[in-house]
Amino acid sequence: MSFLLNEPKLCRPNNCQRKFFVDVLSSFLTSARFTRHEFEDYVQPLISFDTRTASSNSLTRSLEAAHAIAFRSGLGSSLFAPDHPHFSVDDIKAFAQRAFVKDNVAVIGTNIEASTLNKLVDASFVGVAGANAVDGVIETPASRYFGGETRLEAAHDGLQTVFIGFGTTNISTSAELATLAAHLSTTSSVKWARGLSPMVQAIPEGTSVQSLYLPYSDAGLFGLVVSGRTVEGVKEAGKVAVEVLKKSTKGLTEDELKIALAKAKFGAASAVESREGLIRDLGAKVMF
Known about the structure:
Number of strands: 5
CATH class of the largest domain: Alpha Beta
Number of domains: 2
Distance between the termini: 10 Å
CATH architecture of the largest domain: 2-Layer Sandwich
Order of helices and strands: EHHHHEHEHEEHHH
Strand order of the largest sheet: 3-5-4
Structural class: alpha+beta
Largest sheet: 3 strands, antiparallel
Shape: globular
């Protein structure tokens, strides 16, 4: 797990304020109470709401299924708990005891001096248990790629959605896959203009194809999400997407490569401008 401490550039807190915020972060690890009434009255309803919302979204369901098929366990585990979770508060406490240990924690600071952050963390996180002091520490085996295919009943939004892609545990290919995703992306860099993807002109009207590259610390998932209102339109768009993907993997022209590289670099730079993007980018680089 990662904690992000972000200090605004135009407003520098004093040391007391800094210590307060770091103490608040550490308290989640050292003194979390996990009360039964909070779990039953607040957490469980939110779990059910998130799960039902996800199950009604065709894109979310397709990505969940793609991860499950590609990696099975680990990265293949769902991000959403069952609508009626079978675990209890005691199960959560037991998990927290094994998960909230020093070897599983990374503190990331922005706009703060490293020496200052180190002192605050050393003082505030002194109560966090070490891995050797906890029985049954959670192990994180390396990701494995399996692959396969599956079919799900269409979601309630009425969209027919297909995910076509592959996974990899070779993280040295991250730059190449990010460039390929940028080349195939149908999203235009200019408002109201059509994208430069070779699929834009070829896919049937009423359908869409979007490229995705989801990098993780030791694996990645690349794919094309094909969506449309009719089965026939999605089938035709899927065929086009596969043909363009095959052609693109054989090599790009010099101009195509320059455009794709520029687009991939811009996307990477833009992603870290948001808090969520910064955490995702830095979190993927933290190795425990």
